[in-house]
UniProtKB/TrEMBL annotation:
It is a multi-pass membrane protein. It comes from Shewanella oneidensis (strain ATCC 700550 / JCM 31522 / CIP 106686 / LMG 19005 / NCIMB 14063 / MR-1). It is found in: Cell membrane; Membrane. Keywords: Cell membrane, Membrane, Protein transport, Transmembrane, Transmembrane helix, Transport. The chain crosses the membrane at residues 22-43, 95-115, 127-154. Residues 62-167 form the MotA/TolQ/ExbB proton channel domain. Belongs to the exbB/tolQ family. GO terms for cellular component: plasma membrane. The lineage of its organism: Bacteria, Pseudomonadati, Pseudomonadota, Gammaproteobacteria, Alteromonadales. Pfam families: MotA_ExbB. GO terms for biological process: protein import. This is TonB2 energy transduction system inner membrane component ExbB. Its main location: membrane.
Length: 175
């Protein structure tokens, strides 16, 4: 088992080395993005149901739920719940949008490396140019894959949050 993990780690290190320093930046942004998305799923599964039950209990405990003031209180509670649900979603969406841009930064730095090799060695050394080309293509690919995974998961999170908020509104009648 330990040997298998070492083989995986060696493969990852080789991939990261071939992709250049920008690939480490993509990995860091991907890690932060996924940590935030996992936290949001955890919030949806464990924290928000408790908070929503407390809001519904407070609403049901009110004697009067039809006046203008009661409607404003309900709106405030729903707004606060919405704000707590959407907390960190802007950061997640920003990180999703940044991933391809960081990948393009890798393309630029890789191509600079290729042009540097061409200036120093000439165009006859394909092996040296290949290292720069891999530094150009790997971060781009990694940035796009990171962004696609973030798009799918953040869209799913948005849908679940909207559903959760609508269920909260439905359980707080205001006739």
């Amino acid at each position: 088992m330990m040997l298998y993990l070492m083989d995986i780690w060696d493969s990852v290190r080789g991939f990261m080395a071939a992709g250049g320093n920008v690939l480490w930046l993509v990995a860091f942004v991907l890690f932060v993005m996924w940590a935030l998305m996992i936290e949001r799923y955890w919030y949806l599964k464990w924290i928000s149901p408790k908070k929503h039950r407390a809001i519904i209990a407070a609403w049901d405990a009110r004697e009067e739920t039809t006046s203008w003031y009661a409607h404003r209180i309900r709106e405030a509670w729903v707004s606060q719940a919405s704000q707590e649900l959407n907390d960190r979603m802007l950061m997640i969406k920003t990180l999703v949008a940044i991933c391809p841009m960081i990948g393009l930064l890798g393309t630029v730095t890789g191509m600079i490396s290729v042009f540097d090799v061409m200036a120093v060695q000439g165009t006859s050394n394909a092996r040296l140019m290949a290292a720069g080309i891999s530094m150009a293509t790997m971060p781009t690919m990694a940035g796009m894959v990171a962004a696609l995974s973030g798009v799918f998961v953040s869209t799913r999170l948005d849908q679940q949050m909207k559903i959760r908020l609508e269920k909260l509104k439905d359980r707080m009648p205001h006739h």
